[in-house]
Amino acid sequence: xxxxxxxxxxxxxxxxxxxxxxxxxxxxxxxxxxxxxxxxxxxxxxxxxxxxxxxxxxxxxxxxxxxxxxxxxxxxxxxxxxxxxxxxxxxxxxxxxxxxxxxxxxxxxxxxxxxxxxxxxxxxxxxxxxxxxxxxxxxxxxxxxxxxxxxxxxxxxxxxxxxxxxxxxxxxxxxxxxxxxxxxxxxxxxxxxxxxxxxxxxxxxxxxxxxxxxxxxxxxxxxxxxxxxxxxxxxxxxxxxxxxxxxxxxxxxxxxxxxxxxxxxxxxxxxxxxxxxxxxxxxxxxxxxxxxxxxxxxxxxxxxxxxxxxxxxxxxx
Length: 317
What we know:
By secondary structure, this protein is of the alpha/beta class. Helices cover 36% and strands 26% of the residues. The chain has helices at residues 16-30, 46-49, 79-83, 108-112, 151-165, 181-187, 201-216, 232-245, 258-262, 269-272, 277-294, 296-302, and strands at 4-9, 34-38, 52-61, 64-69, 89-92, 95-98, 118-123, 126-133, 138-143, 170-177, 192-197, 221-226, 248-253. The strands form three sheets. Strands 3-8-9-2-10-1-11-12-13 form a nine-stranded mixed beta sheet, with helices on both faces. α5 (151-165) packs parallel to α6 (181-187). The longest helix is centred in the C-terminal third of the chain and has 18 residues, at 277-294. The protein is globular, with a radius of gyration of 23 Å. The model has no long low-confidence stretch (mean pLDDT 91).
């Protein structure tokens, strides 16, 4: 059975990647067909945490375009500068100069140029790579050239590659923080969202946002509260919210000072500190995810989510 779980959090720095890497290691021991995706293409780090031993494949994505000017044809009329909403074009010494890092390839400058001096050309949007980790399962990750956007497109390419190359595999996806395009690309079509929060007002607020997003796509959610013992008042508020929204709480993970220390080594936390107090919470969390996987049909019937249409809030000026 194909099963896809996405580890997501509205806020960065709550321990999402630590939890995702631990989940991958434990599930990799229990399952023979596991593939992991690092969907934070702006700042990928799972290849470090899971210690990729060998890169076995690479896919170059060319889906972006950038404008380029022919200086010999340019007459310096300035129409392209006025048409560019990204302010990527400036007139310098009577000739237009295009900043390739600001250009998004919309083509407005091409349309307005009377001398046809500007053309669009394809550039590399990103590179998707497949590597083998020291734990035996493959990792799909990606990187972007400096200044390039299209992160959602690259995440979609990662997921498509995982589904095509590793058919029938269980997929664990480490999403980016927030609710932006690459997070949406990570969630669409997933079976389960593992939401990670910490007991702070910012994380609580962002938890509500990411849960609203999962409800919009009809994805059932479960919750893990990391560093729960730092602020019992905020933890209680998150627990109350989860109860009201029908979110199953899988684990409360205590704060552990060994976790920052583990970041200096390319090995998941639960391997470095197997007796640490946070390791117990992480193992419990991963065990609960495996229980859900093994009883997926009945669990899904009990936790079926009806998709909720997104209604934007209009803020009057």
